[in-house]
Amino acid sequence: MVFDTLYGTDAExxxxxxxxxxxxVENDGKQWTITLREGLRFHDGEPVLARDAVASIVRxxxxxxxxxxxxxxxxxxxxxxxRTMRFRLKHPFPLLPNALGKPAPMPCILPERLARTDPxxxxxxxxxxxxxxxxxxxxxxxxxxxxxxxxRGRSFVRVALRGAxxxxxxxxxxxxxx
Length: 178
Fold this sequence. Notes:
Layout: E1 7-9, E2 15-17, E3 20-26, E4 31-36, H1 50-63, H2 65-73, E5 74-81, E6 84-89, H3 96-100, H4 112-115, E7 144-151, E8 154-161, E9 168-169
Antiparallel strand pairs: 1-2, 3-4, 4-6, 5-6, 7-8, 8-9
Helix pairs in contact: 1-2
């Protein structure tokens, strides 16, 4: 499956905004406002909204030790608008982007309806797989297809494996600007 995170790690192993356009830190590090990039969509065509990210982070916080640490430091996590999410923290948590951009297990952003699945259960979406976000697309059919291209300045590879039953997309980001 192909998913994306709010932050990612660049070639120098620095955390950088990925689905996030950026963030604003206020109140002596106790409030983080993260703005989503414009135009983000899930594979099913639905827009990615801040409430999807909030529900996904809550799910991640119930399943991962770094996520649990972040949620323990969080007094309130909200989505004041479609593209804005806000962490109100009990104390400064300077590793917040690191928690949201860790490579494994990834704090993937899912549609809210899927992220609200019991954290102890596997999430399923269309075709038995959750709807992902990224320049990759999931397709159905019986042949194999590969394509590369550019999306908002980032190069990507699209690989669709098609067959009876389930379909998956997989690939590797080949770098480029965040």
